[in-house]
From TrEMBL, chains A, B:
Keyword Lyase: yes
SUPFAM superfamilies: RmlC-like cupins (SSF51182)
One BP term from GO: allantoin catabolic process
Keywords: Lyase, Purine metabolism
Domain of life from the UniProt record: Bacteria
One example GO MF annotation: ureidoglycolate hydrolase activity
Keyword Lyase recorded: yes
Quaternary organization: Homodimer.
UniProt-recorded name of the protein: Ureidoglycolate lyase
Catalytic activity reported: (S)-ureidoglycolate = urea + glyoxylate
Stored Pfam families: Ureidogly_lyase
């Protein structure tokens, strides 16, 4: 049995797994007659070149709070498109990821606690846990590839891994 | 001189211009071991088939409050990709759009006031005004086509059109 605690989400630590969408450390450009600061190109959708996948889609997720310690029983990945999670009320959430190719490297699994206002884009093929929300009725916009219904691989954890409630 | 007031944003009224991302009137499906309700496929990114455009990009916009009555001096459109505006703190905002092809139909320009939690996707090529935020420091995630820096047509309004402050 293993216990996992949350790291703080920032671009450098998260780089192997994806992009953090928050503008931190970036210089914005002024558009819309000076009324908007644009932090451009924070994430790029990585879509499989197979046109048969169709266009990327946007979903709304309404999540329940997870209970902690949370048993991380399973990881999944999507090989045909990156996946984006955007909290709709500035709420924090937890992103659980692992490096690896055909198999996740369970020993190097990591959990990141977002700061208010941060969103993330997961690299195409990145092993990750299903959405971990901290409050009931938390809402997220999620962007996926057009083939998302057939593009999920899942694998069960080889041992009990428990995620601690962040402080 | 003409004055424009805001309509309530809903899927039916907005259909000629794009999609409303809010799950209203949709049946969700249960995923993530029952901890997430997914309202799937609320909007589809419509991307030009020209691979030279590159992948779609995600920006962060930080906007200032507009002052009302707001002079709607100019509309723009992007012919190579749809464009998505996602408020990051559940805030309301105003979407100004007009039907039309090579030229906007200025007489049929409309303004929609979103409800808290609603996001929108504008159809590829839809004439629209730059982002109209209601509060200082309002944050939005914006998704655009990879060619967004060269994919904007702008046209000046042929008369003074003033948008009233919504009640």
């Amino acid at each position: 049995m293993r216990r996992l605690t949350c790291l703080e989400l920032n671009a450098a630590a998260f780089a192997p797994f994806g992009a953090v969408i928050d503008g931190e450390g970036r210089a914005p450009e002024s558009i819309n007659d000076g009324t908007t600061q644009r932090y451009a190109d924070l994430a790029r959708l990585d879509l499989c070149a197979n046109a048969g996948d169709g266009a990327p889609l946007i979903h709304l997720y309404v999540a329940s709070a997870r209970r902690f310690p949370l048993r991380l029983a399973r990881l999944e990945r999507h090989r045909r498109a990156s996946q984006v999670f955007i909290p709709l009320n500035g709420q924090r959430f937890i992103i659980v990821v692992a490096p690896g190719g055909p198999l996740p490297d369970w020993e190097r699994m990591q959990a990141f606690l977002s700061k208010p206002g941060q969103a993330v884009s997961l690299h195409r093929g990145c092993w990750h846990h299903g959405l971990v929300a901290l409050n009931d009725s938390d809402r997220f916009a999620v962007i996926e590839g057009g083939a998302y219904r057939t593009d999920t691989e899942e694998l069960d954890a080889p041992e009990d891994i428990l995620l601690e409630l962040p402080e």
